[in-house]
Amino acid sequence: MVRQLAEKHARVDVADVLRGLAVMGIILLHSIEHFNFYSFPDGADCSAWLAFSDRAVWDGLFFMFGGKAYAVFALLFGFSFFIQYDNQRLRGHDFRLRFCWRLVLLFLIGNLNAAFFTAEVLVLYSLVGFILPLVCRWKDKWLLLLACVLLIQPVPLYYVLRASLDPTFVTPSLPTGSFWAATFEAQSHGDFWQTLRANLWEGQLASLAWAWDNARVFQTAALFLFGYLIGRRGLFLRENLKFWNKVLFGSLLAFFPLYGIGGMIPDFIENTSIRMPLMLIVSSLYKFAFMLLLVSAVLNAYYRTNWQRRLNLIIPYGRMSLTNYITQSIIGSMLFYNWGFALHDDLGVTASFLTGILIFVAQFAFCRWWMNRHAHGPMEYLWKRATWLR
Questions:
Q1: Domain range holding 45?
Q2: Using 50, 70 and 90 to split pLDDT, how confident is the model at 389?
Q3: The whole model's pTM is what?
Q4: Residues 27-44, buried b or exposed e (16+ Cβ, 10 A)?
Q5: 23, 85, 98, 365: which has the fewest C-beta neighbours closer than 10 Å?
Q6: Are 376 and 384 in contact (CB under 8 A)?
């Protein structure tokens, strides 16, 4: 099975479909957030129907994609590592050191993206990604165990237990208020170079600290490992669709109770040192369950229905996910930040959502045109060429 995946499926189409849908969801979320610039028009003069639309768009997109689109993206990062690692293994090569160099390159690419957008994830991926070459030769059962341990958030779990036993314990958090204030000031009033400097220093420190405080570090590592296991077991192939039917059923059973518990926790737990880390654990789990629901639903639609041809339309967009992820940051920063058009005071949530759709459509059209003429997207090509420098 592994040999079949590595030799016959250098690229797995349904993985590119998932990747394209994930990046689309990320762009829509970033658009309504004004690319992590939480400055919006005064809603005093807003009509009732527009206020309703803004709330519906915000809540609907975050319910559908918040913490899930990013999770699919992370899952596929681990899957892509398996494809690269195993292709080289079949040729008698060890890809681990080369992948470490690839992560160094990703760190540089991530900082290019961070110059425009403070909440980007590529730098986090480049740091957490070192777990993959460290454990890629472990047996499946140990990889699965490690992934599950990371998924339940060991540090927040320790905080919950510690606070339960010691009422004086205060859950620690990294001080990031001054960092976020500096980036907000640059986004509000700074020119291009002031914004770039603030984004690369205060913005990156704030973003990485937020990832730690909000349980993204352990969850990202777990998703990388789950993606690697999916590749190793060939689970994205059609013959393993029964597995995803079980996942679909199990994720449905898990999501609703976990989501309900997450909503109840603030009403029943007053101690913030217990409540906050416990909410992080529960929200991480129900978002993971919903992500599995989305992945299994797409796989079923792809392999079981007549939607395959329609879903294949997004493959070029998925294959250029790195290019799309970076260019959406550049476009969004230019649209909403002060150094560009400063539309943060003019576009509400609904208008920003429509703007995000326009960005996606423009990128989608460009990807279709580009992939008809090239084998890789621009950033994908540069990353690949730099990976194999001798």
A1: 2-387
A2: confident
A3: 0.95
A4: bbbbbbbbbbbeebbeee
A5: 365
A6: yes
